[in-house]
Amino acid sequence: DVKVTQSSRYLVKRTGEKVFLECVQDMDHENMFWYRQDPGLGLRLIYFSYDVKMKEKGDIPEGYSVSREKKERFSLILESASTNQTSMYLCASRTLGRGASYEQYFGPGTRLTVT
Amino acid sequence: GIQVEQSPPDLILQEGANSTLRCNFSDSVNNLQWFHQNPWGQLINLFYIPSGTKQNGRLSATTVATERYSLLYISSSQTTDSGVYFCAVLPYGGSQGNLIFGKGTKLSVKP
């Protein structure tokens, strides 16, 4: 079974704090993704990575950065948390394909509240 | 870019009823997945189905890639089926790209 795990289910932080959200997958997937989900706005891609040390901006990268030092781990960093970053954050992973399926798997999500 | 449209947006059923959810997409795809988002927010994989038909218990799905649509069937619905069902596609040739999600169908199953 593919497992994507996220470091916290619920997180409460103060405005201005630096926040780290960690994601780990155990299937040797090349692609990893960070999304946020807000009511009425659906899932929006923040950043993705298709290899170690590689990163690509998604649709809403402002206010976020990412780190991928190891293949299995993809971190999302809020440099200075703001209240408009209160959201549900979802991590996902997927193989590149090459004859395997392109099925994508999600972690359980982190509900972040910034006060 | 590719468009993904799901219908209906909302669906209310009595327990035991059957339902069909539809996903239309505007271009060729490498991947089509159906997800169920549970009340805790987790996206659960239901089907990976770029073409053909699959069944898993009370759920089944069919994708007709040449006509660019997919259907998710839920039979004998239960209250635990409630939640939001998303269809998502990976555009053809986009092995490194992003899944494109529909807006979802919100299903409420009443006891």
Furnish the topology, listing elements before pairings.
The complex is a heterodimer of chains A (115) and B (111).
Chain A: E1 4-6, E2 10-13, E3 19-25, E4 31-38, E5 42-49, E6 56-57, E7 64-70, E8 73-78, E9 87-94, E10 104-106, E11 110-114
Parallel strand pairs in A: 2-11
Antiparallel strand pairs in A: 1-3, 3-8, 4-5, 4-9, 5-6, 7-8, 9-10, 9-11
Chain B: E1 4-7, E2 10-14, E3 19-25, E4 29-37, E5 43-48, E6 52-56, E7 59-64, E8 69-74, E9 83-91, E10 100-101, E11 105-110
Parallel strand pairs in B: 2-11
Antiparallel strand pairs in B: 1-3, 3-8, 4-5, 4-9, 6-7, 7-8, 9-10, 9-11
Low-pLDDT runs of 5+ residues of chain B are: none
What oligomeric state do these chains adopt? heterodimer
How many DSSP E strands of chain B? 11
The major pleated sheet of chain A works out as: 7 strands, mixed
Low-confidence stretches of chain A: none
Structural class of chain A: mainly beta
Shape designation of chain A: globular
Question: What string, H for helix and E for strand, traces the elements of chain B in order?
Answer: EEEEEEEEEEE
Question: End-to-end span of chain B in angstroms?
Answer: 41 Å
Strand content of chain A: over 45%
Number of helices of chain B: 0
- Total number of β-strand segments of chain A? 11
Label this structure with key terms.
heterodimer, A: 115 residues, mainly beta, seven-stranded mixed sheet, 11 strands, globular, B: 111 residues, six-stranded mixed sheet, five-stranded antiparallel sheet
Could you provide a short overview of the structure?
The complex is a heterodimer of chains A (115) and B (111). With 115 residues, chain A is mainly beta.
